[in-house]
Amino acid sequence: MGNTFLSRIKLHYCDNHGPRRPGTRPAVKLQGLAEQTRQGKTARSTVEVVDIICMDPGNLFQRQFISSSLQIGNLSFYTTEEQIYELFSKCTSPEDGGGIKRIIMGLDRNTRCGLFQYHCPVVITDDILFGRTPCGFCFVEYYTHAEALACMKYVSGTKLDERIIRCDLDLGYKEGRQFGRGKSGGQVRDEHRTDYDPGRGGWGAQAQLERRREFEERYADVQDGPGAVATGGGEWKETEATVPTLKRARSPGDEGDNTRQGHRARVDDAETDGM
Amino acid sequence: MSYDRPYRGGGGHRRRYRDREDYDMHDRRREYDSPEQILKNTIIKLGEVDPVQEVPRMAQQIRETASSMLTAVSEGIRLAVTEQPYKIPYYAALIRSLHDPVTPGANASGEGQPATSLGKQVLEDFWKGFQGYLDKLSWRDIRLCIHLFAHLTVAQVISTGSMAALLQSFVVVLDEFSVSYGRGKNAALCAAEGLMIAGAVIQKSLSSNTAEIITAIQTFNDSAGSCKNLVQPVVSLYSDSTTLDHADELLDNAITVLKTLEASEFADPPASFPQPYLDYEDLDPAASPPFELPSILVPPEVIELDGLASDAGEDAQVKKEEWPEFWFRLCDNVVSPDPGTVSGFLIRSNIRDMIDIFEVNRKECARLLLEYPKWCVPGTFKPRAGAPPTEEDPIANNWQLESTVIESILGYFFLLPESEQKPVYPIALITELCKLSPSTVGPAVGKSIRKLYSSLAEGLDVEVSRRFVEWFSVHMSNFGFQWVWKEWLPDLALPESHPKRIFVRRAVEAEIRLSYHDRILKTLPEPMQNDPNVIPTQQPGPDAEYEDPSHPYYDASQSILELLRGRSRAEEVIGHLDSLKMSLDTSQTHMHIDSLIRSLAMQALLSIGSRSFSHLLNAIERYLPLLRVLATSGDLEAKRDIVVTVSSFWRRNRQMIGIVFDKLMQYQIVDPTDVVAWTFSSLATGGKDSDPLCLQTFQWELLKGALDKANGRVTVARKKVVALRKEQDDSIARARARGGADVGNMEVDGEVKPLKQDDDADENPQLKTALKAFTSLTREQRSVLAKIIEGFISCLSPAPGDAHQNPHAATVIQEEAWEQRASWSNDEWMTWETWGWYRHFCRMYSPYLRNYATTLSTVAFSKIEGSPSPAAQSMKKIWDISTGQDG
């Protein structure tokens, strides 16, 4: 696309523009899609990377342009991973080695049962009290950036489970990010929400009681800590050669060279970090 | 200036920022404010109110400022032409205005001789852009530029002779030795559309030329004959007919239009498309000589030679072959534009291009599509309800905009073997249109669904039906699942495998996947709610085999489950399984003890992974060592057992079968060949050994999943090898460049270890590994393809001694049988569907099949080689067409 009126560049998450290290060159040339104005200020638009000249792995702003990971917002608390899988698998390109790598549900760190006990005639058990429930967002990680981009173009702003969902390119999942950051353990936005929203635990949750019960148990066994979230499976490897002799052996003194291995290696690192 | 300023060839606007040091928000804003940018934006926005009035004003503005900003003007026009094809006639008018000699008096600068026309200067610069598109073979851009040139020829700005020569250069492509269909089609469209616009003036001066172009296109189109039958959206298995009632082939249409034009010497019909420049006064060719387009040569296609071949020496590079384009028709010519007329053809071409161009922004696309009539000759589309009444125009077409747009988008969506964009794009685009104007687009959508549903019984292609289900379910998911199912109640009387019943069942299943069982159940009328062939009685869930306490292996199963639930280490579980193997009593089952253990362990693992997709991944990942033991130990049946257990555990939830298979392949527990082998072994229609084998959509999706996995791995491995080779070449080049520098020094510098120039691939262990991986992956890819072909043969043309004979395989492809389809039973419909999937497999994966054509046809087709049975011959024919061996 060229730069006609329909493709003016609006930078996405400008405030994330990380500090640029002295001496590094600007990394990405962006291909912008249409401008959208939200609530008076230009807020978001999809941005496509045309070329990466020099990647600075410390720059969060740049990182999102090679990301193959999305954060999905405004989900119903009752939406399952399988529903998400069904919709998001429509953007995959398996013939290019793509696919859905994993889905990470955003969970309430504590439990929202405190809120629910007023409305649900459910016997409160330990399982429910300490269980974690989805709190309305998730991460969808693909194997390729193009797939994540396709979601931004075709899925963001459409409905899933009868709610209009929002997709944002994400820097990739990091330990602990599966939990909401709100004080109550859920998402911050739900603490400020005053309206009635049946899909998100608001009044009227009784209507979906059956579904609710199922959900309260589903994530009861979720743990924190390293290794709590699966990777989804990596690249194909020769099965006979699983012994780690594939990499060239390095002497301990080589460690310091890591930072000087050129662009390719850096981009690779950034990708692995994001996974 | 360096190469960051004036536009030079294609993609220049992208290249512009490359060397800029401080690329950030501040910079961008500054750029927007530059006078060049403002002028460019003004040009791009031409016609927001009334293009006819705006053109002279804009021409005046450009005259006043442009001498210094010529590049901005031509770039603005170039972007506008290639991204807003519906405005091209007005940009032609703008250039024509700039071409007009300046009237005396207005030229206040008082120069003596008349300066070169501004229009010509703009065109000269514009030409560089066109040349850039040509170099990149960016076909759509080329074609849209030709639209502009053709309009300018009619507007007397471009000389007729040079325009005819330009079109001829594209016709030359059609005569190239072994020209690919895709290249030929694109070139033919360039020539055809150019001729439709400028034919009238070319005919006047060079009539032989037009006839020549038309004949060349027709010859090319005729040569594609046999391919056409394979990509028609409505299938006829018995005839080789290349034309259809409900679909139009693009080049066929182009020829129809050109022939009609030729017959009337390009005089009829007048006013098919806007030509605002015709209102201007005639030019004096002496005072303002027309612009001569330079002559061109359409560059050949670039063939990437990366020298990577599979171990059998076949080229493993995949080049997507293009096929004839059949556009599905849902309306008749009274309702939507007739593609056999100039106006109909060009309108459809415009809409197609808009769908393509605005793929990045579906909302904008929807808005522009609904505004499209503004850019057409008045009377083309029926005025909106509530618009001021216009005079009755006898030649007005009064087509329906919404029906046209939905028909075009669905035509795009249903292109075979696959549409250009991901299928969610057209789906999302229709959703946007419905949101934008529910009262007008909604009915058009409903009408389309009914029309498609009724064509299910008329031979709608199986892949088109599959996409129809996909569209229907996602669309309904966006609009509250409101569909009037009641009107299809009478069809419940049809056999369960009738395409209509299959559609209803699969649509409901897809809706449930996007929502949940009870929600969808409520949307159905009662007779459907109670029909297990419409909706299952319960929510799709797992079916654990050993969870019944009375089951003889209940205790064994529970003991494994307990270990898994307690997150015991994989080694412990393996140990426990070993002891179970010793102690378990197998007298209760016909299963071999190894199979039994595998089944118990897999069931337990799936059971802890059944809560959600993440639970599944966690379970697989935690117990990878266990899975590897299960998959490799013992006999060849190990992987098969795993696949079988998955399919029985999730028998009530087909989505999960697909997901688990995908992840088991991803973690390399099973291979794509295992999935393919199992899929074909599970096909017996009644479950008995003597039943025919039939493949339906669900199984096709499993095959596709396995095949795509194998293909995807080859793609990734290929990229890796190419990247490593390049890295190696670069480092060799660097080492050479350094010449005398000594190796030790360089290592201190921390550079990539230089390779001596006589080093070859074997010296680089990474590259060696990558090449080895590539070789085994292409081998796997080939065996998946071979297995699928063998599978289809066992379905449609089994060897005489085979248990699963299918007498219908040879009959459903005959005309008499097809005419009797009203009385077909389930087996006949399922056999017909199997034929459909075989055809789709061949055309969809034809690039891969071509690469391995020789091996595959000797290995897989050996069984039916020379067989006189009509089924075998039909299979071979479809194969030959797909692999390009059909004369």
Primary descriptors:
heterodimer, A: 275 residues, alpha+beta, four-stranded antiparallel sheet, two-stranded antiparallel ribbon, 8 helices, 10 strands, 21% helix, 17% strand, globular, disordered N terminus, B: 887 residues, mainly alpha, two-stranded antiparallel sheet, 39 helices, 2 strands, 59% helix, 1% strand
How would you describe what is shown here?
The complex is a heterodimer of chains A (275) and B (887). With 275 residues, chain A is α+β, with helices and mostly antiparallel strands. Chain A is built from 8 helices and 10 strands. In chain A, the strands form 4 sheets. Chain A has a 4-stranded antiparallel beta sheet, with helices on one face. Chain A has a two-stranded antiparallel sheet with strand order 1-4. In chain A, strands 2-3 form a two-stranded antiparallel sheet. In chain A, strand 2 and strand 3 (41-42) form a beta hairpin. Chain B is mainly α and 887 residues long. In chain B, strands 1-2 form a two-stranded antiparallel sheet. In chain B, helix 9 (160-174) runs antiparallel to helix 10 and helix 14 (342-357) crosses helix 16 (401-413). The longest helix of chain B has 42 residues, at 697-738. Chain B is globular, with a radius of gyration of 32 Å. The two termini of chain B are 56 Å apart. The model of chain B is unreliable at 1-32, 104-113 and 743-759 (pLDDT under 50). The chains are: A alpha+beta (275), B mainly alpha (887). Chains A and B meet through strand 4, helix 2, strand 6, helix 5 and strand 8 of A and helix 5, helix 15, helix 17, helix 19 and helix 20 of B.
